Amino acid sequence: MRMPMSKRERHAHILRVAKQLFVERGYDDVTIADVIKASDIARGTFYLHFDSLESLLTALFEEVVQETWQRIAPILESVEGIEACTVETVHTVFRMFDNTEDSLVEVFFSGGGAEFMRRKEEALYEHLGSLVEEAVAKRHHLLHDGQIPEAERNLKWTVVMLVSLVANMSHYAAHQVRPETREEFEQHLVNFVLAGMMSQMQTLEARNSSWSPEVN
């Protein structure tokens, strides 16, 4: 007999079941019918929550992004300086794609179609990236409330590159780096990213120092 659940509980239940199926079989070997059967729900119930298997995968990815931000936000709020902000971002995003037993890292990097890829980039770069960008800008007061469009644009690009690089290097480390050297690899990544980030910040600061507000 089906257990009574609220709409929110049912939604979370379907996500948990689908995640387990994706981990066990891989995205390409799971169907909507499989999720329906394993969740013990009617087909109509599934479509009340998700319009496709891809939208379900998107929801799982967005959960990971949200959990990542919940972990990093208090840290970025408390650290002082751009270096500490960058280091904590690298470590947290690297952990986001750890290849643990119940991780969806393989699915996120190989499953889904064009729509999932678009939504994944939105969640990773537009949501998480913009929040990191805001934290970085707050540390250095570089943007003057958007009055220097070039500085704002360059900072955005820098953060997008940071998040993209760290996410992909995490995936690389899970498959190509021996467990006993993974910590060393992560530290090397931190050093590499930090050098690039500080170089970019110095460029922005140089432009920022020559800026003065227009006087009417």
Q: What series of H and E elements makes up the topology?
A: HHHHHHHHH
Please report the distance between the alpha carbons of the first and last residues. 74 Å
CATH class of the largest domain: Mainly Alpha
- Return the structural class: mainly alpha
How is the quaternary structure best described? Answer: single chain
Helix coverage percent: over 70%
Range of strand content: under 5%
The total domain count is 2
User: What's the gyration radius in Å?
Assistant: 21 Å
Sum up the overall morphology in one term.
elongated
GO molecular function: DNA binding
Protein name: TetR/AcrR family transcriptional regulator
Keywords: DNA-binding
DNA-binding region: 31-50
What does this structure look like?
It is elongated and about 65 Å long. With 216 residues, it is mainly α. It has helices spanning 7-25, 32-39, 43-49, 53-78, 82-96, 105-110, 114-140, 149-176, 182-209. The model has no long low-confidence stretch (mean pLDDT 84). The chain is built from nine helices and no strands. The chain has two domains: 1-50, Homeodomain-like (Arc Repressor Mutant, subunit A, Orthogonal Bundle), CATH 1.10.10; 52-209, Tetracycline Repressor, domain 2, CATH 1.10.357. α1 (7-25) packs across α2 and α4 (53-78) runs antiparallel to α5. Residues 8-68 form the HTH tetR-type domain.
